[in-house]
């Protein structure tokens, strides 16, 4: 017969296990319900074992949209950017692997370089030739990887609120356990699933600060779609890959010869615009920097006209000039200390 203390411990352990199992069932049920209530609006491609969801609209020169972490291609719908671009362009917006309605097999490490290779193959299958590629936040690393690895197949880059250099990120360190097999699986169906629901509104406020969150943002993206276990895994894995991938890619930025436009909010509270966009602008020969006063990390929700205008300019004009405004807003590269970066980069913490 077990001592009383051991019996109590056994009862507590059984209660915790039962509670975790019930939570996991509830989380899975909510995820399946969210996917039924918010079905895919686009089409699917089967690429290298991935079921890849994309939306295609409009006619004209091709433009590819790559969203950041925590969201999906619906972010570009909520901002109105897809509709504006589709008036003059063929717009292809992807759900990156694990986000929205795209799958994320466990048979590879989904670094930005791996994602870029997959999306490049998808564009080939769709018959899209030499698009302009617009990336936001984490999507900028994917866009850069595509341009570096397939330089003949990308016409130009527009990089919004990008993270380009391996600065210390507290959120990436905190997300690391969630990205692990087994332990991460348990967390995504229990404590992390609950924490994500409790902190979602606050995290979205940080993403948009100092601007107000647009009323249509969460309804369009759908709260429960953003906190499904598959998307929490994608968020965590992408966060874990950010620093090492930025270190690897930043060693190659000098290879870029295509036109690059960097657009960032001066008041971005997720990524320091001078330490990343300003520094990259200084490093590239054919780039311009547009810093937007009073705008935060979600610049594409407030500067659609600027993005459309950039795509309307001849590529050679951008390649040959760096505007006075760009030079005025591009100070010498600065190295922020870890404390400052931790304060300025509080992004999503799954």
How are the SSEs placed, and which strands pair?
Blueprint: H1 4-37, E1 43-47, E2 50-57, E3 62-66, H2 74-79, H3 81-85, E4 90-94, H4 112-126, E5 132-136, H5 138-149, E6 156-160, H6 170-179, H7 183-188, H8 191-208, H9 217-221, H10 223-226, H11 229-250, E7 260-265, H12 274-283, E8 287-292, H13 304-312, H14 315-320, H15 324-328, H16 338-344
Parallel strand pairs: 3-4, 3-5, 5-6, 6-7, 7-8
Antiparallel strand pairs: 1-2, 2-4
SS elements, strand count: 8
Distance between the termini: 43 Å
Largest pleated sheet: 8 strands, mixed
Number of structural domains? 2
Per CATH, the architecture of the largest domain is 3-Layer(aba) Sandwich
Which spans have pLDDT < 50 for at least 5 consecutive residues? 316-350
State the order of secondary-structure elements, H for helix, E for strand.
Answer: HEEEHHEHEHEHHHHHHEHEHHHH
Question: How large is the count of helical segments?
Answer: 16
User: Roughly what percent helix?
Assistant: 40-55%
Overall outline: globular
- Roughly what is the average pLDDT, rounded to an integer? 87
* Strand content range: 5-15%
Q: Structural class of the helix and strand makeup?
A: alpha/beta
**In CATH's first tier, which class of the largest domain applies?**
Alpha Beta
Q: What can you tell me about this protein's structure?
A:
- It is a single chain.
- By secondary structure, the protein is of the alpha/beta class.
- The chain has 2 domains: 1-37; 42-344, Alpha/Beta hydrolase fold, catalytic domain (Rossmann fold, 3-Layer(aba) Sandwich).
- The protein contains 16 helices and 8 strands.
- Strands 1-2-4-3-5-6-7-8 form an 8-stranded mixed beta sheet, sandwiched between helices.
- Helix 4 crosses helix 5 (138-149).
- The radius of gyration is 21 Å and the shape is globular.
- The N and C termini lie far apart (43 Å).
- The model is unreliable at 316-350 (pLDDT under 50).
């Amino acid at each position: 017969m077990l001592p009383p203390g051991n019996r109590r411990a056994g009862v507590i352990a059984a209660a915790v296990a039962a509670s975790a199992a019930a939570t996991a069932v509830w989380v899975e049920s909510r995820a399946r319900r969210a996917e039924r209530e918010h079905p895919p609006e686009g089409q699917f491609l089967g690429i290298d074992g991935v079921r890849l969801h994309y939306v295609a609209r409009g006619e004209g020169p091709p433009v590819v949209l790559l969203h950041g972490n925590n969201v999906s291609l619906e972010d570009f719908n909520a901002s109105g950017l897809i509709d504006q671009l589709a008036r003059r362009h063929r717009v292809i917006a992807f759900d990156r692997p694990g986000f929205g309605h795209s799958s994320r097999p466990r048979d590879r490490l989904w670094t930005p370089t791996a994602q870029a290779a997959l999306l490049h193959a998808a564009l080939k299958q769709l018959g899209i030739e030499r698009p302009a590629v617009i990336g936001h936040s984490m999507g900028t690393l994917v866009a850069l990887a595509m341009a570096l690895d397939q330089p003949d197949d990308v016409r130009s880059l527009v990089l919004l609120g990008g993270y380009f250099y391996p600065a210390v990120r507290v959120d990436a360190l905190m997300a690391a356990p969630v990205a692990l097999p087994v332990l991460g699986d348990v967390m995504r169906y229990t404590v992390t699933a609950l924490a994500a629901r409790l902190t979602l509104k606050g995290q979205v406020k940080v993403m948009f600060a100092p601007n107000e969150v647009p009323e249509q943002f969460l309804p369009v993206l759908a709260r429960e779609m953003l906190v499904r276990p598959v998307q929490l895994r994608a968020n965590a894995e992408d966060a874990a890959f950010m620093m090492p991938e930025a270190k690897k890619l930043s060693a190659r930025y000098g290879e870029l010869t295509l036109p690059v436009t960097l657009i960032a909010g001066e008041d971005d509270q997720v990524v320091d615009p001078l330490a990343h966009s300003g520094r990259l602008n200084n490093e590239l020969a054919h780039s311009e920097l547009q810093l937007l006063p009073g705008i935060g990390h979600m610049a594409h929700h407030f500067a659609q006209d600027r993005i459309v205008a950039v795509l309307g300019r001849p590529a050679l004009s951008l390649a040959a000039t760096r505007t006075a405004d760009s030079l005025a807003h591009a100070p010498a590269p600065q190295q922020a200390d870890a404390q400052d970066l931790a304060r300025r980069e509080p992004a999503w913490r799954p």
